[in-house]
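Below: protein 1.
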Amino acid sequence: MPTEAEWEYAARAGSTESRYGPIDDVAWYASNSGNKTHDVAKKRPNAFNLCDMLGNEWEWVSDWYLGNYYAVSPERDPRGPETALLRVMRGGSWGDEPLALRVSNRTGREPGYGDSGFALRCVREMASP
């Protein structure tokens, strides 16, 4: 799984906006999902050609959750606290309102918690050019 910082970098894909496009173009959420998840890649990808970075399902990342972590974190490549009770989730889901579907939004859940709105994204390291 990516770190929280890696996830946000990938989701932003160079944008400084809260979303990488109009919400109905890029995300499944409460008003357009029909109260269910959808197959991946049915919405417009971001500039890195990544689909479903917002909406459809919350995504687990590898960091532990601390609500105010960014107030005390390193500025460059933060790795999250060493331990905590919750793990970070990003992106929002099919059941959320638009406010939750922002690249900067984050929440925490107990490890092992699951429901139909939670998933994970596998990533791999790329060799340096």
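Below: protein 2.
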Amino acid sequence: MPTKTPNALLRLRKHADYQRVYTSSRKQFTKQMAFFYSLRPEDRRSETPGARVGLTVGKVLGNAVERNRIKRRLRECVRRHISTLTFPVDVILHPRRTVLEMDPKKLDAEVAQIFRTVEASLHKTVRVPEAV
């Protein structure tokens, strides 16, 4: 059985997980993409302790070459900023077609902003147990 790379462990892969995030959260928007996020239930946390990110890049965004380019660009941004997320959360990024022509630094900043928004929102809603 092949070993999983660190990036593979951070990916959201199962259809059921995508559906759970879609139904348990609301769509939020930034300038270049929409995103969804949801805390992972206790029974789904064993496989990956930290955050997982999924990408949805549909056929409406272009041909296979363009869709793959969008995914590669987003994966690189996610890899750089995934450490921002400290909760066991699943995040789905749904980019717009403009991501193809976007400056890489701006895309990087937008993904970083999304992760900061998710982290801040979870800090507000999740009570962290105090040390005794």
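The helical segments are 6-9, 15-24, 64-81, 104-125.
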